[in-house]
Design brief:
Helix content is 55%, strand content 8%. By secondary structure, it is an alpha/beta fold. It folds into two domains: 127 residues, no CATH class; 177 residues, Glutaredoxin, CATH 3.40.30. A hairpin with a 2-residue loop joins strand 4 and strand 5.
Length: 322
């Protein structure tokens, strides 16, 4: 992934359009409140007209905010968030007013153009900003020449290559400790560990925690395994793992699996920790070569580690036998 500080150009144009629309709508509400309310079939007295002009001023202020945000949507995402909140609350207020008879349903036309049509682009801008923040300050903005596989050390001071020269290593890239699927993966590894090691393969865990977390790994009987702390996701990137997309992290299938694993299987629903957008994966690494790998299509994917090891160790054993 090539990290760019620049947001896609369409975000700028959407916010410019939103800003221009708000300024025009606000000006119309201030200058001609009676005409607007008449078109919306709302009977208005003098007080209602003044109130409508005040709404026009507020909408116009939002317009200036969107124009400012258009200059750098990723940096000014709080302005977009505030705007989106207002655009969600507007239709809710309309439903309440229509329900109690305070406003006619025809008033909904203003919600359509003021609020509803902006939901999707505003949500996409916010998602892009959040995803961008998870890439800033870590490996995704570092030079490609970065070589963490030879620089990062395990909790006991060894390099991954040192371990892999002794015997093949199952390198398991985990998500953050608060992730339901990370906990599930740790339990699966604890269950399959003895058979994996009996096959002649070692296990190395890579995690995004800033410091070693022995209490988490000890819970699953993995605290004596070599672990590499990689909060900047340098090793993740070197092995080809990326920041997850919305569907990979929050899609319907992920939610369904999360509820099943977190509630019914007892792994719990934790809070995001470290780089919670980082995708996991597993690799078989031996003598400086990646023999095979499995990159999760979704954060909820559940590989069978023992089957992966057995399938990929067989060719290695055949070569050694010759």
């Amino acid at each position: 992934m090539n990290l760019s500080d620049q947001s896609p150009s369409w975000m700028k144009y959407v916010l410019l359009a939103a800003g221009g629309y708000n300024l025009i709508w606000g000006a119309a509400a201030i200058v001609a409140p009676a005409a607007m309310l008449s078109w919306l079939r709302v009977d208005a007295d003098a007080t209602a007209l003044v109130f409508w002009q005040c709404i026009g001023m507020l909408v116009g202020v939002y317009g200036f905010a969107y124009l400012i945000a258009a200059g750098d949507p990723y940096r000014h995402w709080p302005l977009v968030l505030v705007g989106l909140i207002g655009k969600v609350l507007g239709p809710i207020g309309l439903l309440i007013a229509v329900g109690n008879g305070s406003l006619p349903l025809s008033f909904g036309w203003t919600n359509l153009t003021n609020d509803l049509i902006w939901w999707a682009p505003f949500v996409m801008i916010l998602w892009g900003a959040v995803r961008h923040q998870h890439m800033v300050g870590n490996a995704y903005e570092m030079p490609e020449a970065d070589d963490p596989i030879r620089e990062l050390r395990t909790n006991d001071g060894r390099r991954l290559d040192d371990l892999a020269n002794e015997r093949p290593q199952l390198v398991v890239f985990l998500r953050h400790a608060g992730c339901t699927f990370c906990r599930e993966a740790a339990r699966d590894l604890g269950t399959q560990r003895s058979e994996i090691e009996a096959s002649g393969c070692g296990i190395v865990l890579v995690h995004v925690g800033k410091e070693d977390e022995p209490e988490f790994f000890s819970k699953y009987g993995l605290d004596d395994l070599p672990r590499i702390s990689d909060p900047s996701c340098r090793l993740y990137r070197q092995f080809g793992l990326d920041i997850g997309t919305f569907s990979q992290l929050f899609g319907a299938k992920v939610w369904m699996r999360g509820i099943a694993a977190g509630v019914f299987e007892g792994h719990g629903l934790g809070f995001p920790q470290a780089n919670s957008f980082q995708m996991p994966g597993i690799y078989l690494y031996h003598c400086g070569q990646i023999l095979d790998g499995y990159q999760h299509e979704r954060a909820s994917d559940r590989p069978i580690y023992l089957d992966f090891v057995r399938r990929n160790l067989a060719p290695v054993e055949a070569v050694v036998a010759k």
